[in-house]
Amino acid sequence: MEKNINARISNRHVHLTKEIFDKLFDGELTIKTKLNQVGEFAANETLTIRVGNKKIENVRVVGPLRKYTQIEISKRDARALGVNPPVRRSGNIENTPKVILETTKGSVEIDGLIIANRHVHMTPDEAKELGVEDKQIIKIKIYGEKSGIVDAEVKVSDNGYLELHVDTDDANAFLLNDNDKVTMIL
């Protein structure tokens, strides 16, 4: 079975707890752009990720606030920072590198730095209809001048919106644009 879906490109970003947010920002987290995953949004707030004297500025916060702080970057970003974070599923932040998150208000040193694995968001009903389960690895066919077939993990959640998420490194490797069609091979 095959199903066409959109690919979405995920740039570097951070998910913060309320405690960490309050150390770095005044006020409330504010919405810049709503994301397709129900209730999630790119915030107006940005910060700097620092490792030693290396830094990446203007990193977007993604809301809403979570129960854990997670920093998602690409391998290219990792090289620029001089770190080697693992490729992980969102939320799996044990034994990850520490970084400093900075704003004009303050800074915190925290672990939680990952390269997010490729994943396909979907609701429980969509997973049932497609005959897949949460955390299952499926194949994705990518079209174009640099076509290919890659693995992606199924990510089932109540707020899931059926689409593939890849980071900027994957998008560049396959010459993918935001909202390009790809095919799930089930």
Question: How do the helices and strands line up, and which of them pair or pack?
Answer:
Elements: E1 2-10, E2 13-15, H1 18-24, E3 31-34, E4 41-51, E5 54-63, E6 70-72, H2 75-81, E7 87-88, E8 99-102, E9 107-110, E10 113-116, E11 119-122, H3 124-130, E12 137-142, E13 148-156, E14 163-167, H4 168-173, E15 181-185
Parallel strand pairs: 1-14, 2-5, 6-10, 7-10, 11-13
Antiparallel strand pairs: 1-15, 2-6, 3-4, 4-5, 4-8, 8-9, 11-14, 12-13, 12-15
Structural class: mainly beta
Q: Based on CA inertia axes, which overall geometry fits?
A: globular
| DSSP strand content | 35-45%
Radius of gyration: 17 Å
Largest beta-sheet characterization: 9 strands, mixed
Q: What distance lies between the first and last C-alpha atoms, to the nearest angstrom?
A: 5 Å
Mean pLDDT figure: 97
Helix content: 10-25%
Q: Figure out the total of helices.
A: 4
Low-confidence parts: none
| Structure summary, number of beta strands | 15
Order of helices and strands: EEHEEEEHEEEEEHEEEHE
Number of domains: 2
What does it look like?
The structure is a single chain. By secondary structure, this protein is mainly β. The chain folds into two domains: 2-7 and 118-185, Barwin-like endoglucanases (Beta Barrel); 11-116, no CATH class. It is 15% helix and 45% strand. The chain has four helices and 15 strands. The longest helix has 7 residues, at 18-24.
Keywords:
186 residues; 2 domains; nine-stranded mixed sheet; six-stranded mixed β-barrel; globular
